[in-house]
Structure formats: structure tokens, C-alpha cells
Fold Terpene synthase N-terminal domain-containing protein.
Amino acid sequence: MHGEERETESDKEKKRKGELPSNEEEEKEGEEDDGERSCHRHFLHLQHRFCLALLLLFLPCAARFATTLKLLLFSAILKSLTCTAVAISTCAAGSAAAVIPLFRLALPESSLVVIAARWLSSARQCLTSSLLCLSCLCLRATAEAFTVADAPAKVFFLLMENTEEIFPFCAQIFQLLVVAAEPFQPTLAPVPTPLAGWMSNPTIVAHAAVSRGATIGLGIAIGLGAPSIPATLKDPRTLPTNPSVDYPSGDSNHVSKRTRPMGMSDEVNLPVNVLSATFPGHGHGQAFNAPYDLPKTIMRTLNQDSSPMSMDFHPLNISSSFFSSNVSVGTNVGDIALWEVGSTEWLVLRNFKVWDLSACSMPFQAALVKDPDVSINRVIWSPDGALFRVAYARHIVQIYSYHGGDEVQQHLEAFNAFGESCGSVILDAGEFDDETKAQIENLKKEVVKMLIDASKAIEEIVNLIDLICHLGIHYHFESEIDEVLQQIHKNYTQNGEIIIVDDNLRLLALLFRLLRQQGYHVSPNVFNKYKDENGNFSEKLVKDVEGLVELYEACHLRIHGEEILDEAYAFASTKLKSIATQLKPSLAAQVNYSLKQSLHRGLPRLEARRFISIYEEDPTHNQILLTLAKLDFNFLQNLHRKEVGNICKWWKKLDVAANFPYARDRIVECCNWVLAVYFEPQYSQARKILTKLLALTSIIDDTYDAYGTIDELKLFTEAIERWDIGCLNNLPKYMKLIYVSLLKIFEEAERELEKQGRVHCIKYAIKEFQKTIQAYMTEIKWLNNKYIPIMTEYIKTSTITSGYPMLITVSYIGMKDMATEDIFKWVTSKPKIVTASTIICRSMDDIVSNELEQKREHIVSYLECYMRECDISKEEAIQELQKGVTDAWKDINEECLKPTEVPRPFLMNILNLARFMDVMYKDEDCYTHAEGKMKKCIEALLVDPVPIT
């Protein structure tokens, strides 16, 4: 203060002598110089802070570098970096001295562009290559701002007045450039912040930390004003270098938005902060506040009480000129808006509306009436910028096309494309008391006595075995049943021909079916006796309804070359359909059900649950068998409930609804799928591993089909091929959680194999999974290139993307000592039975999914390939695919006949996966539309116990 007073007196003396202008003259000139002085002060303030920020951001890198290459290099590095910062300061000061006075001259816009270009040229000469990118970016944005602004000087002052917001951006970009070039992992941000939602975008520098003057690197703080509310998050594509766009500060009253969960943009691969030790458990705990947010002009014109949830910049416009780019914004109330950056008005504003309400399920329509608000999870432009996708929180995806102007065109709506989960139907599992367990064991002993009773007639023993199988308790008596049927095959067949004199069609067909189920290659020629003189099946058989039903059931075990069974199938199905309406209700129900779902292709547990209720109504039922079936069913259901509960806890930690809102939330459905593969108690651990992998594969499938960009999917495919946790930093954030969870599942499987001394077998499962992901990528390339493959090319890839080869291989992991390495070599060698099951899966899926896929951009289907290559109608193509399914079933039946290449339990896994497709995909995709048949199946197997009376 004293210095200032002395200086003031000296100035007064000079003014009196005329060496300085008088006060009046100074006041006149002051008005002209205010702008220049203020501009100089702000700019010098800016350059000093900028220099300091650059220096401090270099320190952490230097510190890590020094730790690795010894402290000897540390001082040299700091000296070099300090010189670089000084060069920046010198360049900026010289450029400012040349540019700032020109503001008062009101030069035309073209002249300002020239000045800015000279500034850029000067920067090129002074900056090192690593800093040149930052200089070019900032100066280019400044130059473009001058060309579009009405008052360049005003824009520059605005730039100076918002240094608190500009600094974090400059620091962030600079650090990203430096860290990307160095051979070290990026420094972990000091203060991880809670995540508002899955769309959170991690950044290298935390805005809140910087704003508070947080310690960076070696403990030196940057002192900036601390905002009361963290700044909102922005899409990685955003280039916030436009000084004409007014971004809110951290003190903005607007609620933070959530954007795409990526640690990189689609175009640039930048490192992100990952705490690998805690990431899998906490999902998105690695969110950090970004130092910039949505332009105020956009925030202010959004509907009242709406908050931005996601945004994405037009990919092509950004590459040409930032100021011609468009940004799409989605809000928490379902509004979508398109903006031209730099503009004060939106181009397009759309409110949420379901385009085709009739396509919605009734539960969804009711929920929509009760609560019409639908939040937006994500908006994203297509790579060519022609389309943008809007993903809503209620599993609705709408795709719009935009070609300029003030309108968007409705392109596609996928309502409930991934359906609603049945997870809410699960009940808590109770405990079985010791008395009930003892009762089950005693009843099992009684059944064994029935089976080994040699005094029983052939019809009685065959009916008993059929009852045991139909009631679902056959797995307790596999050795006894095999022994009995082996004896029957020895006594009642000759050269493969059944030699029963009895003309009982029901008995003959039943015996044929049971022997075939057990793998005995008995001849169907025995049914020739039921033909008339013209070689057709006799019309008299219509009177024997039960015999006709058994003949129909037996025909489902036919193999290639058995024309007589093809004829019998056509005859029996035609006659049963014609007489069904004329039968008594109970018999008619049996006939109609058999026509709809055959025993051989049905799910054993589901068939058992249904038959227990029917058998109980039979006055001649065996009480021992019925009681055992009831108790055993409830015992297994209790075990399965516990397994589902444990898996659901794991699933809940993934928080699929928040982290992957685009994906099918289908954990209970996956449990039900795996129960179809093997339900026996000894496979509990195997079910756990397989269910987790199936559920995660479902998310990956949806990511490839409906969400990931081509660049993201390439990165993920490469990471799967490398199979290394080191690939984590190369992936977008939402893919990191998938990748880490996937590796953990296989680690769990590896530990299970290690206990059994078969750890070397894990490589076969990993290889099959890698093939699946590579096939996913192949199909995405087809879609991206609009390529339609020929049928042989399609079926080669699509049978892999069905997931069945991988699931079959992984299902063997938990089968303990039986699953030797030879078994894994066999299953991965593409045996006929595996190929057949994948054809069934792919064909049935494509048939029922075709109508839904036509409503959205999709990968070409088998049906479409068939129609195009054979030049036939859709109906004709469906018939051909159904014939292919029938032939595939014949392949499976043939592969299950003795002698088999592998033990029967391994074949049963494959057979059961094919059965699941027949049950759940016969009329519709019950996995996607889970509220129908799938829900009923889950309720029957996991919710409703069998009443014990």
C-alpha cells in the first residue's frame, strides 16, 4: 500500500510537468483503453494459470517416470518441462500483444481469421509436438468463434471471464494427450465419486477435485473456485472448445445428466481410471465428474422439470467443422431434441410416444397408463450420421432418420424387443426335514422292488417303466431300468425285430419307444402288420385312440431311412386331429396335448409336473409312485430355488437394469434354460457355472445385436481373442464390466476343474467361447456392409452364434470325472449330434423371430437367405426350414443309438438343449417374450410346489 501511495505522488508530479497526460485527458483515453487493459489483465491471468496447470500436470508423469528410471533423471525432466511451459507463456504473450489491440478496429471477420491463423502459425513454431495438438485445438476453436460471433471482443471477454470452466478442460485434454503417449498406467483419480447411473462417463481429471484446489501429483494444489454442485457429464465425442457456447459452471442449478459409459470416444482410444480390485464388485463405482457440461442455451430451453440423461454429437459433422455439428439430447421425461451447436434454438424436439401401442404387451400398456413417464437411457448416432437411436428405460428402442431441416423421420420401433423378466415370480426356498428325506429313501426302495420283480408280465413291467419315466423319478433308477430293458431286448427281439405275438398296438408302440429311448436299435418293420392290402395303415386303427397316440409318440424317435415311421406319423397325426373333437374330455385333452408337444421332444421336468396332476386323478394310480413323485419334485424344486437365489444375488451385483438397459434382463429364464440341460442334484455346481455364462452371453448377444458400435465391438472381439485382463483399458466402460465378469466365470470354472484334476480342459471351453464372439463379429460385419451370405456360409457362422456349441462344451465342466479330455476333444470336433442341435436352435429361432426383426435393423436370417437363394416365398422357406429341423431330430435320434461315441449322459445334455428349443421356440421366442409360456414354465418348476395330501 505504501508503494502504491509513493507511486501516486510521483505520477502527480509528472502530470504537472506535462510528462504525463492530465486527469481529464486520462479519463478520455481511459474509456478507450479500458477494454484493452481489461483484456490484457485477463489474458495474463489466463496465461499464468495455464502455464502453472501444464507444469503441475506434468509432475505426476515425471514422478512416475523418475520412479522407474531412477531419481537421477527427475531434475532433468522437470527442467525440460519447465522450459516448455515458459515457451508456451512467451508464445501466448507475443500473440496476445499482436491480436488484442485489433479488437478496437472492428476488422471484418475475414481479417480476424487471418490474425487467428497467424497466431496458430506462431504456436506451431514454439510448441513441442506433444503440445501442438492442444494448441491447434484451442486456437482453431478460438478462430472459428471469431468468425461466427457478432462481437469478437465480447466473445474474448466471455472467454476470459469463464477461466474457471476453461482451465479444467485445457488441463484434461493436455493430460489425456500426455498420458496416452507414455508407457505407464494413468494415475488413479484421487476422489472417486458415486455414480448417478450406468451412463456415467469417467474422465481423467475430476472437476470437483480440481475446483477445490485438490492436491495433484506431488502435492501442489491448483487454486480455483469451488463449485457447489459438480459439473454435469458429457459425451466423449464432445469438443468443448467453442468459446461462443456457454457451458454452465459447477454452480449450475440443472441436475446432472448421464451419458454413454465409455472411457473413450468412438474415434479415439484414451485411457481411463480403473480400480481393478473393486471394479467388478461395484460395477460403476469408477465414475468421475467431468469439467464441462451441456451448453446453457440447451439447458434453458428444455421442458420444465426435465434433466438431460444422454447426449451424442453427430459423428461426421464433428470431423468437418465443430460449428456445423448437431447434438442429440435425451431427458429423464422422454424428450429428445436435436441442436445445432452455437445456436440458441433447437432444430427438432420430440416428446415420448409409443408409435404402435397395439404391439405392446397388456402388462406394459397397463403400466404405461398408470405411469406414462419414460426416461431415456441413451441416445447415439449411427456411424454414418443418418440415423440416431433412442433407448428408453422400459426396453423400448426407437430409431429416427435425420437428413437436415426441422423434422426427423420415424425409422423403426422395437417395443419390448427384449421382453419383461420373470424374476419376480421366484419364492424363497425352505428346508426339507429329515423325516421327509427318510420317507423318500424308503419309497425309492419300494420302487426298486417293483422293478426287479420277475413275476410281472411284459405289459405290466413296460407300463411301470413308462410311469416312472413320465413321473420324473427315473433318474433314481437308471441302472435298474437299464437292466430290465436289456433283459426285455434280449427276450423279445430277434435280429432287431420285436417278436411279440400280441396284436396290441399300444403295447407294441410303447415298447418300441422305450427301447429306442434307451438306445436300442429296434426295427420299425413290426408296424407293417397294421397296414391293409393297399399298403396303407388301416382305418380300423382310428378306433384304438390310445394305441394311435402311442404310435404317434413312437414316430418321434425315427431316424433317416425309416419310411414306414414317416408314413405312420402322417397317418396318426391326421387321424388324431380329425377325431379329437369327438372324444371324451379327458382323452381329448391327452390327444390335443400330444399333438402339440410330444413326449420325446418335451422337457422331462415340465412333463413330470403336468403328469403328476393327471395321474393323481386316475383311480387306479399307484400310491407309492405318486407319493414319491410329489416329494421328489418338491425336493428338487427346493434345491433349484436355492440355486436361483444365489445366482440372482450375483446378477443383482451386476445391476443389469442400470448398467445394461438395452439388454434382456433374463436371469431366471437362464436358470430355467439350464435346468432343462440337467436337473439332477449332482449337477448343482455345473448349473451355477453354465447359468452365469448363459446370462452373460445373453447380454453380449444383445450388445452385438442392438447396442454396440462397430468400433466398440471390434475392441471387444479383440479382447476376447487375447483373453487377458490387460485388455481392460482398451474397452468402453460398459464393456469392462462384461469382460471382467466373464473372466471371473471362467476362473470359477477353472477352479472347479482343478479340484477334479482336469484343469487342462478349460481351454476347450474358452476356445468355444472365442469362436462364438468371432462369429458375432462376422455377422455384425455382414450387417454393416449390407452383405447377404449364401446359405452354406450363413449356416456355418449362425450355428456358432446360436451359442449351443459353446454351451454344450461348458455344460461338461461340472460333470466331474466322467468328462475327460477325450470328451472335450469329441464335443469340439463338431460331431453330428452337436451340429443337429445347433441347426434346430438356429432354424426355430429364425422362424419365430423373423417378424420382429423386420421391424428393426437386423442381421440377415436363415429364412431370408433361403428365400433369396432359392427364390421362394416366406411360407415355402419356413416349410423347408421345418423339414431341416425334422432331419436334424433324426440325426440326434440316430446318434443316441448304441453303440455311442461317448457315455449317454453327455448325449442327454445335447438332446435336452434341442428339447428346450422345441418347447420354447415352437410358436414364439419365449426367451424374448417371457411373459407367456416361459413364465408358466418357471411357475410350474420353480414357484408352485406339488400339493401333498
User: Anything to note?
Assistant: The CA atoms of residues 542 and 575 lie 7 Å apart. The first strand starts at residue 215 and ends at 216. Residues 628-943 form a domain with the Farnesyl Diphosphate Synthase fold (CATH 1.10.600.10).
